[in-house]
Fold:
Amino acid sequence: MSSMSYLRTELSNSSGVERRRARVALVELGDEAVPTLIAALSDPHLLAKHEALKALEAIGNVAAAQGLVDALHDSDYCVRWMAAEALTHTGPTGLRILLAELAREDELGSEPAYVHEWTRYVLHFYQGDLPKPLEQLLSALDDNGAGDTLAWDASVALQSITITSTTPSSSTSTTSTTSTTSHNFSATASGACG
Structure:
């Protein structure tokens, strides 16, 4: 068994000390550990998912964004909450993937309650630092997705984000297509579930 596989297995250890050791070791591996941590999000043990999400949040690599958005559909509230927290560390790239999921689900007419809820959460995290189309989307989500324009609002908001830097673990900024204002999407988070 490789050391990465061993650490992945230890994320579901019944000992909190051993789970923490595995998580810390995976965080120290950084970007190399992201695929292993994303795979852990489908583990049947909630503790493994929680530890993986804590590690992904600490690493903050944009490569985790799609897996984090997928975790917003998990049946466990804490998994969804921790995934949203970790998404705040993926900067504008993570936000683009989240908005694309919101627009896609609304266009398909599927029940996107979780994606609505957590998109709203992530946008509130950045409130005051959002381009106008994102503020408008947040307002629509605050009104419980009122109206038939949520998919359109998400698509317009998605187009308003231009990635100017994709360096992992650095502060990433975006610019609105209608403004030259720079928007910093760096984040820190604390949690009730983890």
User: Anything to note?
Assistant: The two ends are 28 Å apart (CA to CA). Confidence is low (pLDDT under 50) at residues 164-191. Residues 50 and 79 are 6 Å apart (CA to CA).
